[in-house]
Write a structure and sequence with these properties.
It contains 3 helices and no strands. It is an all-alpha fold and 77 residues long. The chain has one domain (23-76).
Length: 77
Amino acid sequence: MAALTVRLPDDKHRRLKALAASRGTPLNRLIDEMTTLMLAEFNAETRFRLRASQGMGKEAEGLALLDKALRKQEKNL
């Protein structure tokens, strides 16, 4: 495990400590949870952008597949 020193304005530090206390969790755990969420968002966006780039120029094919799926779903209702 690595240690990280972060410089924050005093007011922001107090507010983060208050938030952690209101959740009943240590400040370190709160920061760990926040970074985990941010990394998950980053990973999802990266995957989305990669998949979107792979589909460029194939919009018509994708829309046709969606239309086919909708027609099939309507038949099953």
